[in-house]
Amino acid sequence: MTADATPPRRLRVLAAMSGGVDSAVAAARAAEAGHDVTGVHLALSANPQSFRTGARGCCTIEDSRDARRAADVIGIPFYVWDLAERFREDVVEDFVAEYEAGRTPNPCLRCNEKIKFAALLDKALALGFDAVCTGHYARVAVDSEGNRELHRASDMAKDQSYVLGVLDERQLAHALFPLGDTVTTKDEIRAEAERRGLAVAKKPDSHDICFIADGDTQGFLASRLGRAEGDIVDESGTRLGSHEGAYGFTIGQRKGLRIGTPAPDGKPRYVLDISPVNNTVTVGPLEALDVTALTAIKPRWCGTAPATAGEYTAQLRAHGEETPVRVEPAGDELSVTFTEAVRGVAPGQAVVLYDGTRVVGSATIASTTRATATV
């Protein structure tokens, strides 16, 4: 297998430039590799702020200007494309609907699937580009039969393959990740940006949901879904307190429950279940969160779909650890059984499957099986 993050032939590359250091360095490396690179900043907000606050949010006017300045230094053409309406429909509205249904979505996966490697890629191909380049830390490799595969980044500490697990074979065929083979620290990437004269070298990374710039997810959801008071109950159904909207909770949450009555054993309680039907949140002990299996839907394969059951490892969160699983495909569903019980698994999250460093595919968690029945 050979690395193929920057193929030897000269490509027409559209570099998605967020205004951050990673995408700027990725664009610079693609240009340095001899590709014909054009930079593009995606305007994803209908009403962008003029400035970001530290590491909160992105897609501000400031970000677009930072991206333009980086493109000027690299010496590549630069454009701003307005995808705000598509982003609102496919990412923001999906995010709100998922929380309203009692699920916990990952908007970064949805953005990669629907925006960067669907809307953006389709437009790029229509304009004659060969590939889209981003600053993600992941690798594209070619197997002995010429098939392109998605792999973890060389530096596991920065690996972002989890949020790219939604990419299919066609999308991978037109994806470039110039940072994926880099075994360096983020400080070294910043040092490279500084050597290249890129002013974003010291710009803080964005760590929050990009369309919730103040970081107040619950407030964002309340402004769109309204406040709806409901009960917080224990496993037996005993009312312990109230809430202002079940959408403000996630499975495994401990803080912010505002329960006045302590548990009989004095131990903390955690959110075990969220029921949008009766607007009820169920809480209980930590061990009640143990999950032994799950059912996932809408699988997306980074290559050929496995036809039979197999042994893989699974990652359940963007920065989570791998855990051994057995996977049985059944049409548009997957049955995933864990070798050891795991915690903090919520419907709506993505389960991403790996075979070594290779990303096999991903699916959306629909339901879980607990080690001990709780509700």
UniProtKB/TrEMBL annotation:
InterPro entries: MnmA-like, MnmA-like_C, MnmA-like_central, MnmA-like_central_sf, Rossmann-like_a/b/a_fold. Residues 158-160 are annotated as: Interaction with tRNA. It is found in: Cytoplasm. It holds the Pfam family tRNA_Me_trans_M. Residues 292-365 form the tRNA-specific 2-thiouridylase MnmA-like C-terminal domain. ATP binds at A16, M17, S18, G19, G20, V21, D22, S23, L42, G135. It catalyses: S-sulfanyl-L-cysteinyl-[protein] + uridine(34) in tRNA + AH2 + ATP = 2-thiouridine(34) in tRNA + L-cysteinyl-[protein] + A + AMP + diphosphate + H(+). The record marks H136, Q349 as: Interaction with tRNA. It is an enzyme of class 2 (transferase). GO terms for biological process: tRNA wobble position uridine thiolation. GO terms for molecular function: ATP binding; tRNA binding; tRNA-uridine 2-sulfurtransferase activity. The active site is at C111 (nucleophile), C210 (cysteine persulfide intermediate). Residues 219-284 form the tRNA-specific 2-thiouridylase MnmA-like central domain. GO terms for cellular component: cytoplasm. Its EC number is 2.8.1.13. Keywords: ATP-binding, Cytoplasm, Disulfide bond, Nucleotide-binding, RNA-binding, Transferase, tRNA processing, tRNA-binding. Belongs to the MnmA/TRMU family. Catalyzes the 2-thiolation of uridine at the wobble position (U34) of tRNA, leading to the formation of s(2)U34. This is tRNA-specific 2-thiouridylase MnmA. It comes from Streptomyces triticagri.
